């Protein structure tokens, strides 16, 4: 069985993060925590590549629509008027399309991170999907105020700086999807002797 400090996750600085010059800041926050970058590259993937990255499961797609409806309800916006429907299962596919437009709008920086509870820790450092409700101290909470209510009015995805795997199973799948074994590096960080 693997040691907990060998857990791996996948994180990607999205085009907005790269264009805003936040790549270094994002890596700094991850490394500061004691997590280790074991693979890293800048790439401009095709729409097809992102289409294969984001799930096609109807449940996942509907959840995107639910996020829209939640912020529309909170701020009193009318989904039917703005988007032509108030059904999450119809809004979800629109959001997925906008997400592919966004992710192909510039280069991304992809990374594999290793360390204790890497999946949960990187999600915690990233903050909630919606920057407007992400806590201060997180990447999304400190560097953005975007929200589906605002993004969807402009027919676009939420610009939230990073993508990070949600579960160890998703991480394993995404690591394989984005990196070859040869691109992953093994080294010891000097903190490893004192932190753990
Ligand atoms: P996370 O990236 O936090 O895991 P999801 O997997 O739910 O979030 O969504 C994938 C990405 O789609 C988000 O990071 C965000 O960029 C975008 N997104 C999610 N929900 C919406 C929405 N309702 N409107 C616009 N963009 C959205």
Automatic annotation (TrEMBL):
Residue ranges of the TM segments: none
Every Nucleoside diphosphate kinase-like domain range: 6-186
Keywords attached to this entry: Kinase, Transferase
InterPro entries tied to this protein: NDK-like_dom, NDK-like_dom_sf
Annotated CDD domains: NDPk_I (cd04413)
Sequence similarity: Belongs to the NDK family.
Name of the protein described by the UniProt record: nucleoside-diphosphate kinase
């Amino acid at each position: 069985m693997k040691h907990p400090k060998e857990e791996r996750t996948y994180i990607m600085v999205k085009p907005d993060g790269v264009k805003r010059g936040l790549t270094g800041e994002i890596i700094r926050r991850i490394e500061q925590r004691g997590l280790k970058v074991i693979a890293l590259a800048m790439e401009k993937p095709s729409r097809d590549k992102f289409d294969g990255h984001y799930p096609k499961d109807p449940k996942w797609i509907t959840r995107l629509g639910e996020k829209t409806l939640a912020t529309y309800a909170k701020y009193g916006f009318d989904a039917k008027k703005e988007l032509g429907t108030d059904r999450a299962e119809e809004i979800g596919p629109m959001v997925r399309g906008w997400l592919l437009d966004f992710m192909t709008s510039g280069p991304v920086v992809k990374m594999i991170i290793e360390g204790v509870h890497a999946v949960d820790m990187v999600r915690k450092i990233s903050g909630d999907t919606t920057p407007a409700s992400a806590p201060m101290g997180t990447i999304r909470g400190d560097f953005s105020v975007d929200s589906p209510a605002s993004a969807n009015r402009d027919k676009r995805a939420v610009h939230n700086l990073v993508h990070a795997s949600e579960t160890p199973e998703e991480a394993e799948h995404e690591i394989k999807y984005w990196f070859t074994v040869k691109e992953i590096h093994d080294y010891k960080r000097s903190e490893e002797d004192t932190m753990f």
